[in-house]
Amino acid sequence: MKRVVYGLVLLAAACGGSSFDSTVQAKLMQAVQTKPQRIDMGEYVTSDWDHVCVLTSGTSRQQFEQVLGSEWPDFKAPDAEHVTLVFAKDGRVAESTELERRRGDFAAAGSSYCLPRDSAVFHVTNTEAAEYRPIAPLR
Predict the structure, then answer these.
(1) Is residue 5 part of a domain?
(2) Closest CA to 25 of 1, 41, 13, 5
(3) What is the pLDDT of residues 1-15, one digit of tens each?
(4) 17 in any annotated domain
(5) Cα torsion for 126, 20, 44, 121, to the nearest 10°?
(6) What are phi and psi of 19, to 5 degrees?
(7) In angstroms, what is the C-alpha Rg of the chain?
(8) Residue 68 falls inside a structural domain
(9) Taking the model in full, what pTM does it have?
(10) Is residue 16, in this structure, part of any structural domain at all?
(11) Alpha carbon distance 44, 42 (integer Å)
(12) Could you tell me which of 82, 79, 78, 134 has the C-alpha nearest to residue 108?
């Protein structure tokens, strides 16, 4: 697996992928409201993965595939109101989902980025916000 890439985009080689079960999405969005100080992706995404990538608006297929080194047939560029979370294992997409920024803003940290599983813990940086609650990696 290629190293984690911060800034422009993603991860090293992936093909295929599947979507989340809607139950996982609901639990994740509930965690944004009920556990704002520590949102550990490993608690919500139980499939086998070793990296999570947060894709933000402006990430193009070309940028994504350049970093990947291959195509990801299910790639869909996020719009300004959504982020895409991509969970990968050994350079292959295991799961992905699109989330509304209004319900929890994983794009608050800026450009697209990836984290290894052991660092995929987030927190809400402004718990007073009713919508677009900014979510960033817990460091």
Answers:
(1) no
(2) 41
(3) 333 332 223 332 333
(4) no
(5) -50
(6) -90, 160
(7) 14
(8) yes
(9) 0.79
(10) no
(11) 6
(12) 134
Q: pLDDT tens digits, residue range 37-72?
A: 999 999 989 889 998 888 888 888 877 665 555 567
Tell me the two tokens of residue 27: 């639990």
The two tokens of residue 3 are 């190293």
Domain count across the chain: 1
How would you label 33-51 residue by residue, b for 16+ Cβ within 10 Å and e otherwise? eeebeebebeebbeeebbb
CA 15: distance to chain centroid? 17
Q: How wide is the angle at C-alpha 20 spanned by C-alphas 18 and 24, nearest 5°?
A: 160
Please compute the mean of the pLDDT values over residues 104-111 and round it to a whole number.
Answer: 85
Per-residue pLDDT at 110 = 75
What's the pLDDT score for residue 67?
55
Q: State yes or no: pLDDT of 125 exceeds 90.
A: yes
CA dihedral 44→47→51→55, nearest 10 degrees, is -70
Domain assignment of residue 29, given as a range: 22-137
Backbone angles phi, psi at 33, to 5 degrees: -85, -35
Residue found by looking up tokens 């639990």 in the block: 27
Which ranges of 22-75 would DSSP assign to H, the alpha helix? 22-34, 41-44, 61-68
